[in-house]
Amino acid sequence: MFKLMPICAAALGLAAAGCSDTQSPTDNLRPSAARGTAGRAVANLNLMDACDPETFSVVPGGCARNGGITLEQFNAQLARLGVAPAWQISPPDVYLHEGDAFMATNIGGEMHTFTEVEEFGGGIVPALNAASGNTEVAPECTTLGQSDFLAPGQSTDAEETDEVEDEHYQCCIHPWMRTTIHVRGR
């Protein structure tokens, strides 16, 4: 579990229960002040959006950035594509070795989560689930706590990979925002 500054989901008006292997394994690593216990660099994932603060003011939590896509444009993209392309986790795939570390930073203007899920699914906003075709809610999204919400500018603590596997992470607010961390042996 990541340690974050508490943000009350209820205050945001969110209905959260309980408040290619051809890529080099080091392509997504960047030197960081946060380092794994072995002193390895930390892969940084970015949670991104392009909300417009004026029109997103009606959305719980609003938007803390300048300019961007209007709420009307967001809804049109979501209806047409099943995703709003600017709302994403980048990169969508990360290749690490066992013992490497990673962290996520919200560089957007809206609230996001970076939630590990067994399988990708819907999140905590039924209208966004329906519009994106994510009708099966990821169970992990139903047990979010205050510390699971990342406000703009917040980062998770660095988490070290401890076993060879593929780990899936998604935003439980915008469920098409997804990444897979592919952990390989050394």
Descriptive report:
With 186 residues, this protein is of the alpha+beta class. It is built from 3 helices and 11 strands; from the N terminus they run αββαβββββαββββ. The protein has helices spanning 9-12, 71-81, 126-132; strands at 29-30, 42-48, 88-90, 93-97, 101-106, 112-113, 115-117, 149-150, 159-160, 165-170, 178-184. Strands 1, 2, 3, 5 and 9 form a 5-stranded mixed beta sheet that branches. A hairpin with a 7-residue loop joins strand 10 (165-170) and strand 11 (178-184). It is globular, with a radius of gyration of 16 Å. It starts with 8 loop residues before the first helix and ends with a strand.
Secondary structure elements and pairings:
Elements: H1 9-12, E1 29-30, E2 42-48, H2 71-81, E3 88-90, E4 93-97, E5 101-106, E6 112-113, E7 115-117, H3 126-132, E8 149-150, E9 159-160, E10 165-170, E11 178-184
Parallel strand pairs: 2-5, 4-11
Antiparallel strand pairs: 1-2, 2-3, 5-9, 6-8, 7-10, 10-11
